[in-house]
């Protein structure tokens, strides 16, 4: 058994890895911390990629007192009634289920984030942050002339069955970018990839215009699924909690192929 206060301290210390971030500017719409303070005594922590009523019910059924997710729900944009928000929030209140959300901090975390975890998974070393809209959401990684086919084979069973690969770039990879979730590059970012000699761009989602852009710049593009690329950091966080805290954990798998 641990307390919610000690869990909150542990998570804040671990995940707020750089005190200089102004999180309300970097990530204004998603939570990076404790969202609902419920039961103080915690025997079990549930972890999931995204908050939803179904995930809350699964956490409750698993007998967890706290839930940690990457995507919390959106808060009402104005001071008005919002049915979706009220239903989700009232479930937490009625069931005394604490909720933590770590969005930007889990994408960008230099030890357990989704993107460093993806780079480590393919045997790469971390080089430097990859900027998205000016902020370090992803990472550049280095592998040593690794065949693309070997990377894809090694990753495949951890990615979405609906993943997309555009193998328009080199057959052997030296530099990758990992930016999980909806990390699809914006048109001005393409030159940033070219200038940095990126051979493989790994993200979660795809967009219509991406295929021809990547064909023209001759860079490989892998969209491994938003959900699947954002399991990595949650699973790394679960492993660390198991190692460091005297508490049970359970990963709540509400799989989503997007
Ligand atoms: Fe993310
Ligand atoms: Fe995401």
TrEMBL record:
Pfam families, alphabetized: DUF34_NIF3
Signal peptide residues on this chain, from the entry's feature table: none
Record GO terms (molecular function): metal ion binding
SUPFAM superfamilies named in the record: NIF3 (NGG1p interacting factor 3)-like (SSF102705)
InterPro entries (alphabetical): DUF34/NIF3, DUF34/NIF3_sf
Positions bound to a divalent metal cation: 70-71, 107, 226, 230
Keywords: Metal-binding
GO cellular component, one term: cytoplasm
Family statement: Belongs to the GTP cyclohydrolase I type 2/NIF3 family.
Protein name (database record): Nif3-like dinuclear metal center hexameric protein
Species of origin: Candidatus Roizmanbacteria bacterium CG_4_9_14_0_2_um_filter_36_12
